[in-house]
Design goal:
Number of domains: 1
CATH class: Mainly Alpha
CATH superfamily: Formiminotetrahydrofolate cyclodeaminase monomer, up-and-down helical bundle
Distance between the termini: 40 Å
Number of strands: 0
CATH topology: Four Helix Bundle (Hemerythrin (Met), subunit A)
Structural class: mainly alpha
Helix content: over 70%
CATH architecture: Up-down Bundle
Shape: elongated
Radius of gyration: 20 Å
Largest sheet: none
Number of helices: 6
Strand content: under 5%
Length: about 210
């Protein structure tokens, strides 16, 4: 998936193919946000005007690169988890033993399909926090890019949580489902706060 040209990736996402779907597209969007955080860091580091914050900017940039790589892997995992579900659903049901085995495999695939977008949301939350931290100190001429990173990371996180939500009702383990619901609420609330704080800094520096 990651080796596809952008045009082919989009064409496949626009088709009837099962992957890439919403979870993978959200992960790629999150990776784009991380790339922008890194870019703003690159444009800030080494400039005399920002020498006082250079160490902090380098830290943020390094974490953004790591998150970008992780989100690319998350895009692949999202597609792989759905393919595993399709394989499990297609297993034979000829006899009690086969039915039981199929049920176990489907249940495991549902867990994987739910955890994959949750992991994407976790990484997007990290990118959003990095963009928020960078917004007040990044290079002024790239502040709009920091704002795009904020908005994109927030949208990617919220989008990933939609994929979590659609799978939650199919989890057999109610205790696990409750833990995931709690975590997704925490992520959504923190994301809204980070976006608000980060965009306030961006707006102030843009004087709008």
């Amino acid at each position: 998936m990651l080796a596809l040209p952008v045009s082919e990736f989009l064409a496949q996402a626009a088709s009837r193919k099962p992957a890439p779907g919403g979870g993978a597209v959200a992960a790629v969007a999150g990776a784009g946000a991380a790339a922008l955080v890194s870019m703003v860091g690159e444009l800030t580091a080494g400039r005399k005007r920002y020498r006082a914050v250079e160490d902090e900017v380098d830290r943020l940039r390094g974490r953004a690169v790591g998150a970008m790589q992780a989100l690319q892997e998350a895009a692949v995992e999202d597609g792989a988890s759905y393919q595993a579900y399709l394989r499990a659903s297609a297993m034979p049901r000829d006899g009690a033993a086969a039915i039981e085995r199929r049920a176990r495999e489907v249940a495991a695939a549902v867990v994987r399909m739910t955890r994959a977008p949750l992991a994407t949301a976790e990484r997007c939350a990290e990118v959003l926090a990095l963009a928020r931290e960078l917004s007040p100190i990044g290079a002024a001429h790239a502040i709009s890019d920091a704002g795009v990173a904020l908005q994109l990371a927030h949208a990617a996180l919220r989008s990933a949580l939609l994929t979590v939500d659609v799978n939650l009702p199919f989890l057999r383990d109610e205790e696990m489902a409750d833990r995931i619901r709690t975590r997704r609420t925490e992520l959504a609330t923190a994301a809204d706060d980070d976006l608000c704080e980060g965009m306030k800094a961006v707006s102030e520096r843009l004087a709008v």
